[in-house]
Amino acid sequence: MEREDFGALLAQVMRRVMDAERPILTAHGLSMWAYSVLSRLADRPMETQQALAKSIGYDKSRLIALLDDLERDGLLTRQPDPSDRRAHTVTLTPAGKARLHAAKTDIHAMEDDLLAPLSPTEKRHLLSALPRLAQEP
């Protein structure tokens, strides 16, 4: 029996994850892109707007409107970059950290439900392997 294509399986899983995440993020007042921004800023507390757009794979010209909304909601701040006055650094606020934490808590609970068919060992192996696969070569 021939195994299913890896990419097709990942696409099916991603559709399930995104469909399950969307209402959770909506309940927290976030879009998937807003969640991506907050998550990235939690990993790297201060990013330039351009580096942030590149790191999440988002069009830098569209990022400004998204950052405007997040800043208006008090979830991040933008300041001129001291090393390049044309650039701005983006930083999470305490409210942004709290909103991200609340959303992540609910998303992790959803993921636990999604991964319930796996044994604890399978789940541990999958979750430890995925970050290595996600890294760019």
From TrEMBL:
<feature type="domain" description="HTH marR-type">
    <location>
        <begin position="3"/>
        <end position="135"/>
    </location>
</feature>
<protein>
    <submittedName>
        <fullName>MarR family transcriptional regulator</fullName>
    </submittedName>
</protein>
<dbReference type="InterPro" id="IPR036388">
    <property type="entry name" value="WH-like_DNA-bd_sf"/>
</dbReference>
<dbReference type="Pfam" id="PF01047">
    <property type="entry name" value="MarR"/>
</dbReference>
<dbReference type="GO" id="GO:0006950">
    <property type="term" value="P:response to stress"/>
</dbReference>
<dbReference type="InterPro" id="IPR000835">
    <property type="entry name" value="HTH_MarR-typ"/>
</dbReference>
<dbReference type="InterPro" id="IPR036390">
    <property type="entry name" value="WH_DNA-bd_sf"/>
</dbReference>
<dbReference type="InterPro" id="IPR039422">
    <property type="entry name" value="MarR/SlyA-like"/>
</dbReference>
<dbReference type="GO" id="GO:0003700">
    <property type="term" value="F:DNA-binding transcription factor activity"/>
</dbReference>
